[in-house]
Amino acid sequence: MRAHAPLVLLLAAGAVPALAHAQRFTIPESKLLDPEFADPAWGGDCVRSDGPGDSVDFSFSGLTASSTGLKDDYPVDVVYGQILPSHGNGDFSNFSGFSQSFENLDDASIWVSLFVNTGFTGPSGTPPNNPANDTFWQSEWIEVLSGETREAALAFDAAIPWNIADNPPPHTQGQDGVVTAINSFDRTELSAIGFQVADFSANPEATLRLRPGEPDEILGAVDVGFFPLTGWGPQEPLTHAGSWGGLASGGEGEGTSQDRAARVIWFGDYDGDLDCEDVDPDPRSGELVVPLPPATTPTRVLIRHLDGFADDSFEVYGSAPCQDVEVLLGTYVDQSDTETWVVSELEIPACSNTGPYPVKGTPCFHDSWRSLGSGSIGGGSGGSTSYTLRFEALGAEWGGFCPFGQVAFDWIQIRGLPNP
Asked: Potential cystine with 343: which of 4, 5, 37, 188 (Cβ 3.0-4.6 Å)?
């Protein structure tokens, strides 16, 4: 059965050795309306106003390529769900990162990035009274087009550091500007949380509407992410230019593309030289490892995938480390002869079986695809279990298999159940 909304998965560029938690924090409306966010900490000027619902509007002026930043400074507030009590309220080791939604109300593009600071520099720092403990970590800059809404995400496992070269142990070691995982010590010493805005396209004045991000969404941009991957093709359309269902502008159909990039399973040409000699050595299949909540928590898997000119049918299998068999979670049957992005959903229900997840043959797995509908999405839980999802293409090779491959995926999310 075809889902009415695409199944969401954002695919990382390569294997990430450590499995991240399933939850990210976000700056809530109450904090964005706090006096700390009334004026920029650096850069240009802004006027803040309460927006509709849970949104807050920021009208900027004097923007330059050097950025304008607003932040919750040390000690950070207690509104994020971090581990408390903790020194400076800074223990965010229960999160995998930070996300925020940005809507561009202006008539030209604007660029945004999230950031945190880590490392206490005062008497309680390690070592004490040392400004070298501080590191500025940012997400990639993303462009938000006029009228567009995009979600920015800073992944603790893959953030961009500055002022890191002089970090003394036990703080994270690395090089400025080189994507690095924030180590476990620094995740307990967040000293600032914020966002920055820049003019890279001759737009010094802009209005952004901020909303909370999706704290229970697993999100990895194409070159920065949370998922260990096996058997996926290269970034598209970066490697093979083409329409890809209008992905460069977000994609036609259901859902939106936050990074405008995708990957395929069963790829026909990996390096882009079009010689079709580097086809997928493990045809039809691609795997990724995700964290799932405990088995007592119902879990939804959302996937955004392209139903295009090929036979884009595929199956999804799941297995936990304790299992010696895979379980068929769902099957998508190709519906279209045009390029349309689809969001599909399957549910892994709560189980009472022994072990983190049931074994094949128990009634705890559903193999049906359900409509996402238009209800709000919430829920989720802390804690996670390593779980492998394997996607297998079912259709025959199509005429464009080399170079485009078979089935394209934009993003995946692990969610709780919808709010009642």
From this structure: 5
pLDDT at position 377 is 21
Domain 24-212 in CATH: superfamily?
Answer: Galactose-binding domain-like (2.60.120.260)
pLDDT tens for residues 399-409?
Answer: 888 888 889 99
- Side chain identity at 62, as an amino acid letter? G
72: nearest Cα among 193, 212, 196, 195:
193
- Within 253-339, strands assigned E span 263-265, 285-292, 299-307, 314-319, 327-332
User: What top-level class would CATH report for the domain 229-415?
Assistant: mainly beta
- Return the domain boundaries, the chain: 24-212, 229-415
Q: 237 in helix, strand or coil? A: coil
**What are the Cα distances from residue 157, in Å, to 92, 216, 281, 302, 309?**
13, 16, 28, 22, 36
Q: Which of these, 208, 139, 220, 143, lies nearest to 180 by C-alpha position?
A: 139
Helix (H, G, I), strand (E, B) or coil at 151: strand
The Cα–Cα gap between 304 and 308 comes to 13
Residues 6+ apart with CB under 8 A from 116: 92, 98, 137, 154, 159, 190, 192, 193, 194
Whether 385 has a pLDDT exceeding 80, the answer reads no
Over residues 225-270, the pLDDT tens digits come to: 445 677 888 888 888 888 899 888 878 888 777 678 888 888 877 7
Q: Is the predicted pLDDT of residue 37 greater than 90, yes or no?
A: yes
* Residue corresponding to tokens 């000690």: 75
Provide the token pair at 99: 């996300």
Residue matched to tokens 């009642």? 420
- Which tokens hold the place of 217? 């969404």
